Amino acid sequence: MDTERSSSGVGVIDKAAAVLNALEAGPTSLAQLVTTTGLARPTVHRLALALIHHRLVARDMHGRFVLGNRLVELASGAGEDRLIAAASAALLSLRTTTGESAQVFRRQGDWRVCVASAERPIGLRDTIPVGTKLSMKGGSAAQVLLAWEDHSRLLEGLEGARFTPAVLAGVRRRGWAQSLGEREPGVASVSAPVRGPSGRVIAAVSISGPIDRLTRQPGRLHAEAVVHAAATITAALRKPSDGGDEED
Question: Which of 203, 202, 208 is nearest to 189 (CA)?
Answer without folding.
Answer: 208
